[in-house]
Amino acid sequence: MAKKRKILKGVSQARKKDSQEALKALAEGIIDQIRKADFPSVTMPSRTTDNIYFDKKLKQYVLGGKVVRRTARNVTHLKPLTQLVWAGYIASTLLKENKTSTLRDVFYMAEGEGLAFEDQPESDRIITELESVIKHPREDFNIFPEERSAMFGNLEVEYTVPGYEGRRLNFTMNPDGIVIGPAVATSEFVDTDADKVIVIEKGAMFTRFVEEKAWKRYNALLIYTAGQAPRATRAIIRRLNVELKLPVYLFADADPWGLHICQVIISGSANAAHIPELVTPSAKWAGVYASDIVKYDLPSTKLNEQDIKRLQEIGKDPRYQSEPWKTEINKFFEIKKKAEQEAFSRYGLSFIVDKYLKSRLEELEG
To answer: Residue 77 falls within a domain, yes or no?
Structure first.
């Protein structure tokens, strides 16, 4: 059995405390402006495309130095500024009462306060702006998306949510995996003997990996992303990598969309360029590769026009200029085919865990 990892305690709670202090500072700044008879205003990083760039040293998207100012002096700024302040109040209340909310909840709560958003994207955008102002991701102030991803493996955590403080959970307790919801996302890591994390795009493959005991055979924690990984899941992946020093391996379909799913976990997205806590730059894309389609003679389909267009876009993206990305993208153009993770089932239900996973991990751990 692998050596147990040293666990860092109190990390998430410390972040919540820092988030509360940042929200308090925001409120005090606005109150101070009003007391001085000034029009209240808030300055935040610009999130326009010309202020978002890929930092090759950090290997992730980051914001540049441009800022924008929301001020009550400008009548067109009044509504979004008021909504931003209100969102800060909701976030602070959630932290004080030790409660959680979803993005959808916030959207509907605003209607009750007479601050109705046009639609949820507008509501989500205000939450994103609040993140950039206080420099904390929404998960730090207890606002989460709907849960849809899961984790399985020998990891014990301790809950911090009200009514469950001190209770512990091991992720081997449910054969379907444990949903990565707010309680899990805010929990403290207690103990694990895993020495790696395997991230899987598809639910069928996640179930297969659990059934074939890949978590035990390869001493790994298994995470199911359900397509593009939700932010709480990306945050958990990073925590496992940073706090527990576990290497991360990413498995997705052999198509341009699978490549993007993996790359977002590694280097982030333009939409969340203001949140470094969501990226895991050391994570490794482990397949399925275009070359695997040829090597294993996998059942495949032709790339359609949308696939080709997406590959062309990816080919110009600086994040995909290193290996194995560059070679595999060229291979896609060469064979003009794509395949799903499930394609390995042509060789039997156990092949992907017995042969493919074993071979790829040995190659990457080399």
So the answer is: yes
- Give the domain range for residue 303: 150-365
Q: Three-state SS across 300-315?
A: CEECCHHHHHHHHHHH
296 is catalytic: no
What CATH code is carried by the domain that includes residue 307?
3.40.1360.10
Domain final position from 91, 115, 144: 144
d(CA 3, CA 185): 24
Nearest CA to 229 out of 193, 258, 186, 194 is that of 258
Identified catalytic residue from 108, 164, 224, 347: 108
- Rounded-to-integer distance, Cα 273 and Cα 285, Å: 21
Look-up of token digits 């179930």: 207
Tens-level pLDDT at each residue, the chain (366 residues) = 344 455 555 556 788 889 999 999 999 999 999 999 999 999 999 888 888 888 888 878 888 889 999 999 999 999 999 999 999 999 999 999 888 888 888 888 887 777 778 888 899 999 999 999 999 988 889 888 777 899 999 999 999 888 888 899 999 999 999 999 888 988 999 999 999 999 999 998 999 999 999 999 999 999 999 999 998 899 999 999 999 999 999 999 999 999 999 999 999 887 777 888 889 999 999 999 999 999 999 999 999 999 999 999 999 998 999 999 999 999 999 999 999 999 999 998 899 999 999 999 999 987
Q: Which of 117, 144, 171 is the endpoint of a domain?
A: 144
Same domain, 126 and 270: no
Q: Are residues 121 and 205 in the same domain?
A: no
